[in-house]
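Sample intake sheet
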Amino acid sequence: MADSFHFEVLHTDSGCSARRSRFRTPHGTVEMPAFMPVGTQGTVKGVTVDQLHDTGAQMILANTYHLAIRPGEQVIKQLGGLHSFSGWSGPILTDSGGFQIFSLAQRARVTDDGVTFRSHVDGAEIHLTPERAIEIQAALGSDVAMVLDHVVSLPNDDRTVKDAAARTYRWAQRSLKAASKTNQAVFAIVQGGLSTELRRQCAAELSQFDFPGFAIGGLSVGESPAEMVEMLAVTCPELPAERPRYLMGVGRPQDLLEAIYLGVDMFDCVMPTRNGRNALAFTDRGAIRLRNRQFADRADPLDPDCPCPACQHSLGYLRHLFTAGEMLGPILVSIHNLTYYQRLLQEARQAITEGRMGQFKQEKMAHWDN
């Protein structure tokens, strides 16, 4: 790992594989396990940088494909890189565009060389290779860049999954060879669908290379929560203990705790903000759907112990904002959900340090299931 980066496992829970770790990057140190809010277009939707800091966020994610299309990586580079461009001074991770192979499948054509997209903005053709994905991320100036991977939907046929995993492995080698920036860490991505054999094989093979970190991709794309846990259980032990482990695109609070229990260090997901914009708030009592009529005259807050601005208001007021179509509603509940995720991860870090991650997970799950 380059001198600009340092990962250290501070404590492993005696009752499981949960790790309390720390990841130093050129733009700051991240206490782990950590959740990264998603800022696809260089912004976490509806949330200012100051508000994002106040939620407890340490590191955010941006999207290579979307930023390359608009405004273009050279514009961002000219304006000082993604940190200066967005105003976020902390660490940033950029994904590679691999997820768009799945999410924009109707607009994507994959070959061994790379993937060709038809832009969702203007229909222009965009050719993304492993080398090009690294080049774009170098121009963006993120702290962590992801290799280009081939993401397929689940469930899927064995041949498709096997081909995608093999292609991801080859692309990872090309990505590592193309990387030249010493102040940008390139993470590999494990694929393999729902095959325990392929997941183990891909993880073991990628671990032979000196990647500063390893991600587990191709999950939260149609499989059940139980299947996701099974894949994590077989993949994590194959990854180097001295490198951070990142579960991409996941997910629900339940999923985070299950993955932390199995040894995952990093997460990202649009769920807190996407649900916030749609009047769903996360709490320790479970999800609250604020459009429900039962909250119309409620004077109590979402969570009396939460420091976020949404919880300075009544449930009745928050519901009113949504029913009246006021933009403040989605903003406040997005901030609340981001704050909830950060508080949950902070509590998880403390539980690991105290050797009670299993008990912590069980207690949280019991409340969420009610």
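Comment: The CA atoms of residues 204 and 238 lie 6 Å apart. The radius of gyration is 20 Å.
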